[in-house]
């Protein structure tokens, strides 16, 4: 069975991008994804972005993942509800997204099991840790020994994301070090209030900030690429003017895209083989 898509399109990996559930000013509910994440998939990873709505159990993870070649977990203004990691209740007025939690946490576990390439960013980084059994600090800036990793909201969005706020040290022999062999220390942006308290079983540290906070990890026994970062490499593809040039960010998305393309080749080859066998029989 041939695809209806042109070869140039059908040969691209299909990469899921998880959406947030939000009410916009008109108070109507929307499933939304930031354009920078969509462009990071299309321009950075070289894939076709597919937005995954936050429908919870209405989306069977295994069935969805059979159609995907990769999964990008986005950042968000909201935080994971603390009951997912046995945390204390959040302060009144804290922003949560239970529909996203109900969709993404099971999807992560299924994706790791299925060997689907994953890249987690910011909230997505925290979701991967929680989904696999880790815990979070809800206010890193109030924990003794750690810096304040939040952005300066008095500055412009471009300034917040373009600013290289602190260094991270890449762990020797890790996934991230193999992606970026040019240096053991790299500067990154920083726009998060929460952070990893305990790392989930089966994860390994890939990078730490200068205060010791975990900034990146990978899945130890992953069948394919499974990396998460606390900073925002997707900003490289933000559509606004004034975005800086960050080769380190580009290298991360390229490595993710390469893994997605490899899965796409294997997935479509297996599917074509099954179709050919069916025709013979």
UniProtKB/TrEMBL annotation:
Signal peptide start-end: none
Keyword Transferase: no
Pathway in which the depicted protein is active: Amine and polyamine degradation; putrescine degradation; 4-aminobutanoate from putrescine: step 4/4
A GO molecular function held by the record: gamma-glutamyl-gamma-aminobutyrate hydrolase activity
Any matching Pfam family: Peptidase_C26
Function statement: Involved in the breakdown of putrescine via hydrolysis of the gamma-glutamyl linkage of gamma-glutamyl-gamma-aminobutyrate.
Protein name: gamma-glutamyl-gamma-aminobutyrate hydrolase
Source species of the chain: Nitrincola iocasae
């Amino acid at each position: 069975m041939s695809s209806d898509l042109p070869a140039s399109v059908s040969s691209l990996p299909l990469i899921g991008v998880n959406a947030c559930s939000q009410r916009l000013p008109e108070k109507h509910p929307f499933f939304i994804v930031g354009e920078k994440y969509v462009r990071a998939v299309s321009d950075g990873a070289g894939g076709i972005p597919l937005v995954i709505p936050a429908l919870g159990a209405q989306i069977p993870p295994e069935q969805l993942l059979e159609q995907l070649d990769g999964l990008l977990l986005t950042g968000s203004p909201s935080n994971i509800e603390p009951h997912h990691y046995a945390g204390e209740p959040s302060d009144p007025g804290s922003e949560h997204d239970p529909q996203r939690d109900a969709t993404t946490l099971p999807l992560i576990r299924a994706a790791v099991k299925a060997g689907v390439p994953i890249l987690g960013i910011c909230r997505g980084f925290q979701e991967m840790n929680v989904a696999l059994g880790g815990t979070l600090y809800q206010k890193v800036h109030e924990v003794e020994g750690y810096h304040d990793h939040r952005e300066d909201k008095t500055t412009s969005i471009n300034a917040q994301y373009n600013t290289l706020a602190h260094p991270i040290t890449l762990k020797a022999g890790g996934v991230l070090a193999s992606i970026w062999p040019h240096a053991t220390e790299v500067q990154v942006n920083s726009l998060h209030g929460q952070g990893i308290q305990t790392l989930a079983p089966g994860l390994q540290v890939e990078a730490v900030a200068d205060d010791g906070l975990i900034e990146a990890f990978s899945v130890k026994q992953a069948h394919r690429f499974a990396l998460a970062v606390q900073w925002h490499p997707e900003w490289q593809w933000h559509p606004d003017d004034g975005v800086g040039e960050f080769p380190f960010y580009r290298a991360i998305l390229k490595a993710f895209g390469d893994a997605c393309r490899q899965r796409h080749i294997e997935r479509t080859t297996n599917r074509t083989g099954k179709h050919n066998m069916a025709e013979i029989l």
